[in-house]
Request: fold
Amino acid sequence: MSLAPRLIRMHPSDNVAVVANDGGLPAGTVVDGLVLAQAVPQAHKVALNALAQGEPIVRYGVNIGHAAEAIAQGAWINEANLHMPSAPDLDALPAPPSEATQPQPLDGYTFEGYRNRDGSVGTRNILAITNTVQCVSGVVGHAVDRIRRELLPRYPGVDDVVALDHIYGCGVAIDAPGAAIPIRTLHNIARNPNFADSTMVVSLGCEKLQPSRLFPDLFGFGSNGRDGDGSLITLQDENHNGFESMIASILKSAEKHLTQLNARKRVTCPASDLVVGMQCGGSDALSGVTANPALGIAADMIVRAGGTVMFSEVTEVRDGIDQLVARAATPEVAVDLIEQMRWYDAYLAAGDSDRSANTTPGNKKGGLSNIVEKAMGSISKSGSMPISGVVAPGERATRKGLLFTATPASDFICGTLQMAAGMNVHIFTTGRGTPYGLAEVPVLKLVTRTDLARRWHVLGVIVAGEVISANKSLERVGQEIFETILATASGQKTRAERLGLSNQLALFNPGPVT
Ligand code: CA
Reply:
């Protein structure tokens, strides 16, 4: 079905609108009472009136830049004729409101999950094997292949066995302040609800990141580096005599863990046990029109149901920090939000960079002229609820509600840090297309455009583009997202899971290596 020429304006004060049509619109198209001065690609901006040089360009009711030159009505606006404004001053933000609005409760929604001893709920039943250092990765990978082939078929109640592989553990300045982030990330990933407090650990023996440092509390490791329940295998252990002996130790421990995991059953859990991590990747200018606002509606529903929703990606909210502070549930949350922005500003500055380094060639091709425009679309996935907490990179979330989990925007690092924060479902919006996935937590894709969903049908679980192509309401798509999250949490496999597509974990390590 081809759509009549259509422009989408997000806010009454906007002086630009974006092209909705697949394939864009040709020069001379008459739309909304103006004539396109040139061909404009899908999702790209059109000037709704003539603009003088230096005049603000407004989308989402926000100044996303200034006209770099005089721009005619109906002309295409992109990064070539738009100058980026500076980021909001962190020392001049309005104070948060003294009283946050209370969400209206949403009752009656449940899913079938695995209840853990610590009260958290898994959406998958996975045997995870982490390590204290990259040196052991080859051995663990070999063992995981054998576990999958030889043992897993005998334990049908277990979804998978996964190596939590990473490149940390040695050759690093382990006492530097920055080292705390990757260390606590590894600690908390091993505690993700999908692993049932049953994560195995493989250590080399001589590494800087000793098991007792990584898990001082979790497995009851003694000073000799041996634990009571066989969850820790140390390759340099004197009892190991050759490679096969190391593999045998890992397989023996795995069998014990698989037996325990296999006995678990899904039970009915309230939607308040959802911990949904949200991010976007390969965004376009329709991300903020279709996928992200629809996801925002689903996020509101989860929060109203008492669940946890995490949004992240510091550089993609930095330009909207004033909006976030205005939604802080308490003054402490506002302070924490600003603190995370300040830390990241300094981190980028130390690398002679700033938040504008975020946008990619694909973002620009998709109509996002700069990080300000990208941020306004990105933030809309957070919905409208008060922000009840801030989670620092690598920390585990300790409260429910809408949380800002501070992470880089990098898809792999954001997903890894949200996993450490305890997410049990990941939802990912895209406008350009990406095969990103995780083996540890189901990843749902939300696609901004119908055309992309058709070509990348293998990934398009929910087609938010139907807001445009089929005139679906954002509310209807939001409800679909919420219900798909519940079904996925109950065990419905994503297409990426069925195909076995997954990405590596990627730690955020701002500390020095040696
Ligand atoms: Ca991302």
Observations:
- The chain has three domains: 7-83, 126-262, 268-499.
- The first strand starts at residue 7 and ends at 8.
